[in-house]
Amino acid sequence: MLRNILLAPYFYLRKIKYSRMVKKLGWKQTVLDFWKWESGSKTNSVYAIICDGAKKEDFDTNDRSLVWLLNPKSSDGCLNIGCGIGRVEKHLHSHVLEMHSVDMSEGMIQIARENCKNIPNVYFYVNSGDSLSMFQNNTFDIAFAELLFQHVPLEVIKAYVAEVHRVLKPGGRFICQIPTKQKYGHMPRELCGWMVKGEVDELFSNFSNVNYNSGGTNEFYHCPTVTK
Ligand SMILES: C[S@@+](CC[C@H](N)C(=O)[O-])C[C@H]1O[C@@H](n2cnc3c(N)ncnc32)[C@H](O)[C@@H]1O
User: What DSSP state is assigned to residue 178?
Assistant: First the structure.
């Protein structure tokens, strides 16, 4: 409580600073500059940048992912949005038919391709940062976006969810993490599209079986599984 009060001026100034940066540079450049995914990806520090302090070895052994909550099947075509360096692909590829993985950072995709170069059923794409235009309608059985939407403006989350609806097959399922106001409310929504639960319900109003209790929801993220 006291900590929050002491930090309030810092968060307030930071919010103004990033709002100004987004106006000047646009959200995409601001996000890329802030996280330095492009420059960081030239060194091993990429592992620290992606997941607090993780080392390369952790990526070879750690199969943690929210996609397991969808119970992937060997006949599934799977989409991963904001895939980073192929961390999940290494472990999931043998459980599904194919994986198609997109990221807006060329640096991340370069590393992902290198990390998964011997895996035949995984395909990586650099995307625009807000669309899945390389995929046709009704393509995927399952899709997920993990540790992505806290880096994405509100409007872009909405654009991605509409795209997910388009590219999932009827009956296809999606899981993602949407940042909560409780933990991310200090960020400008032009940079981090935090939401309250009612907004998440509205976001997925075109989907059915919206289920927040599948295991991923916590104080940082709403984590619904939804069905097209
Ligand atoms: C924290 S990393 C998570 C990577 C991966 N999902 C994982 O769990 O290992 C976030 C990733 O999202 C990518 N990213 C950020 N904004 C994006 C956007 N609008 N569209 C696609 N990828 C994005 C970044 O380049 C980065 O690779």
Answer: E
- Note the Cα 48 to chain centre separation in Å: 17
pLDDT value of position 48: 56
Residue 109's closest CA among 98, 125, 123, 87? 125
Which residues have CB under 8 Å from 14's CB, separation 6+?
186
Residues with Cβ within 8 Å of 133's Cβ and at least 6 positions away in sequence, in order, are 127
45 found inside a domain: no
pLDDT for the residue numbered 40: 55
Q: Would residue 217 count as lying in a domain? A: yes
Taking the CA atoms of residue 105, residue 107, residue 111 and residue 114 in that order, the dihedral angle to the nearest 10 degrees is: 110
Q: For ligand 1, is residue 200 a contact (CB within 6 Å)?
A: no
Does the C-beta of 154 come closer than 6 Å to ligand 1? no
Q: Which two tokens stand for residue 98?
A: 């194919």
Answer whether residue 131 is part of any domain. Answer: yes
The whole domain housing 185 covers: 63-227
Q: Which residues of the chain have pLDDT under 70?
A: 1, 39-55
Nearest CA to ligand 1 atom 2: 50
Residue 80 resides in a domain: yes
The overall pTM is greater than 0.90: yes
Name which of 117, 131, 96, 105 is nearest 34 in CA terms.
105
Pocket test for ligand 1, best of 31, 83, 113, 148 (most atoms within 8 A of CB): 148
Our mutation pick for probing the ligand 1 site, out of 103, 126, 184, counting the most ligand atoms within 8 A of Cβ, is 103
Domain count, the chain: 1
